[in-house]
From TrEMBL:
It comes from Grus americana (Whooping crane). GO terms for molecular function: carboxylic ester hydrolase activity. This is ADCL4 protein. InterPro entries: AB_hydrolase_3, AB_hydrolase_fold, Arylacetamide_deacetylase, GDXG_lipolytic_enzyme, Lipase_GDXG_HIS_AS. Belongs to the 'GDXG' lipolytic enzyme family. Keywords: Hydrolase. Residues 118-264, 315-383 form the Alpha/beta hydrolase fold-3 domain. The active site is at S196, D350, H380.
Amino acid sequence: MAVVYTLLVLFLAVFVAGFILLVMGAINFDFSNSEIPPGVNQPVKLRIIHIILISRAVVGKILENIGICSQVSFVRYMQDRKTPGVDLKLFIKDLLFEKVPVRIYQPKVPSACQRRGVMFFHGGGWVFGSLETHEKLCRSIARESESVVVSVGYRLAPEHKYPAAYEDCLNATIHFMKNIEHYGVDPARIIVCGDSAGGNLAAAVSQTLAGRSDLPKLRAQILIYPGLQALDFNLPSYQQNRGVPLLFRERAAFYILQYLNGNASNLEDVLEGSHIPIDIKLNYRKWVSPDNIPEKFKVRGYKPHVLLDSTTEVYETVKRFCEPNLCPLLAEDAIVQQLPESFILTCEYDVLRDDGLLYKKRLEDNGVRVTWFHLEDGFHGIINSFNTDWLSFSSGKRGLDNIV
């Protein structure tokens, strides 16, 4: 019995040591491919968060390889573990809008007039994120702006491919608009808002509703470091911030491919720009081009990228990248001209920075009023880190204050 016990202890020790070595090896590999520029806000904190995220992903991959659960399921589980308790200033309720899970945050303090209504779509690359991951952010927006916030728990990829997430957000928004009287919200003050992939969904929903005469007109759209196109992953910000946490250039392309097809088999073609035929790229170059990025954003080491053509086979798998419901930056001028007043937040050290800058220009060129707030020391995901105890970022709080 003693021998069996000793062997068991040895086995566990070897297993744990191997497990730790695997995790540390993956972290070192990711470190070698990552970079935190000198201008990033509170770099040590960012590095710690990066280590936590890498470790979580590696453990998930190990669990997937030994058949316990998928990596995606494990990461989602870890993200959703913590939910804040009762909020003394808000009524919080979970409901279904057209079979779509939503969480409503309503201020308890009585209001002399109807409130503002905010439809919020969470980020997470269409693959991750949930009502729980953005709970603190939605609570803060509801409290600080004294608004009714509706957070939408849309379906995620790769299980639910495009246009599932877009359709859920659109249907939930239309349901809210049609039942506005139940929530004490002014129909003239409805806003769509989202971060990252959620910013993409907010922009797409806003465009779809722009031409609807049977519904209230949106008051505004709030786009927080949105991803808005998949034609060019070699814009200045994609080159400059390719290895800056929390979103690498490769991961940005990977996520939108997961949303589109449920796989990333054409990842290399997308990254090098050989997924869209040259004639189509040239057609959209008036909107998606480094020429439309102000020169001051190109000084950190941008090199013009050679236009590459695409094979018919590759293009067939990704041609829906040209649909505005997936890539809102490609909407026609006639749609863009009808869009509501817009707030766009960008971060200097974010691969998606230029998507926001290009959309800002498109809106302004079409007569839409834009408020632009740029975090010079910010990185992708910083807004959701505004209130994470000792890992909080002052720059994230500053961004949130401007959103409010």
